[in-house]
Amino acid sequence: MRICCGQSSSSSKPSVDYHGNDFKALVYEFMPNGSLHDWLHSSASDSRLNLLQRIKILLDVASALDYLHNHCLPTIVHCDLKPSNILLDDDMVAHVGDFGLARFLGANSNKNNTSGIRGTIGYTPPEYGVGSEMTSSGDVYSFGILLLEVMTGKRPTDNIFNEGLTLHKFAQMSLPDHVTDVLDDDLLNFLQKEAIATQCTEEKAKKIEECLALTVKIGVSCSVDFPVQRMNIENVVHELQQILDMLK
């Protein structure tokens, strides 16, 4: 057995690989808290995420993408970022898993073509659908959609998104002053209960609302249709860290 990464980010999932004459497998460390998808969409009442947990998870995922895009040679593009591929360990630290569609940028020009990449409907950037060259900004788009799902509790493929309405537009219309109108009901309940329990001051309430708006704005900025207009993942990490610091 051997560890399959010469370098690693704490939020990109390391693997242990075993192979023999008749058996080949990639074996990953067990993640006891399941996937982000489970926590967002499970019917179990004890599987709910508060605001701090959501921001920390988003920061973990953004940090993993920053590592893959800016600190690996060659650059690695994940190509299938979605909640079911975000795994949570004992401490609720998020790890990016499932690199089955991942590609190395620049290693082979033919492999940078997106014609063979299907990804997942709702998370795949629009330019991949017309055969544009694969870039790290495609992952940024997927991250933006994932972020908006984390904050709203809505999948990009939910039935309400039709006739031109998308998760991106749904969130964009709430900015800057109506973000609470689109928040996940579970998150709203957490915030309301916490406000009562801690006798939240008006100043603190405004700070939380500001953090919510800033977070949703990041998701909207990452998921615009035009790749060159999307945020740089390094800036995403920086802004999410600032939001987390504001909430502490």
Provide structural commentary:
The chain is mainly alpha-helical and 248 residues long. It has a single domain (32-247), classed as Orthogonal Bundle (Transferase(Phosphotransferase), domain 1). It is built from 7 helices and 7 strands. It has helices at residues 36-41, 51-70, 136-152, 167-172, 185-197, 202-222, 233-247, and strands at 2-3, 15-19, 24-28, 76-77, 86-88, 94-96, 103-104. Strands 1-2-3 form a 3-stranded antiparallel beta sheet, with no helix packed on it. A two-stranded antiparallel sheet has the order 4-7. Strands 5-6 form a two-stranded antiparallel ribbon. α2 packs antiparallel against α7 and α3 (136-152) packs antiparallel against α6. The chain is globular, with a radius of gyration of 19 Å.
SS element count, helices: 7
Mean pLDDT: 89
CATH topology: Transferase(Phosphotransferase), domain 1
CATH class designation: Mainly Alpha
What is the CATH H-level superfamily?
Answer: Transferase(Phosphotransferase) domain 1
Poorly predicted sequence stretches spanning 5 or more consecutive residues = 1-7
Task: Give the end-to-end Cα distance, rounded to a whole number of Å.
Answer: 41 Å
Helix content: 25-40%
Strand content: 5-15%
Backbone CA Rg: 19 Å
Across the major sheet, the strand order is 1-2-3
Task: Give the overall form.
Answer: globular
Number of strands: 7
CATH architecture assignment name: Orthogonal Bundle
Main location: membrane
Membrane topology: Single-pass membrane protein
Protein name: non-specific serine/threonine protein kinase
Catalytic activity: L-threonyl-[protein] + ATP = O-phospho-L-threonyl-[protein] + ADP + H(+); L-seryl-[protein] + ATP = O-phospho-L-seryl-[protein] + ADP + H(+)
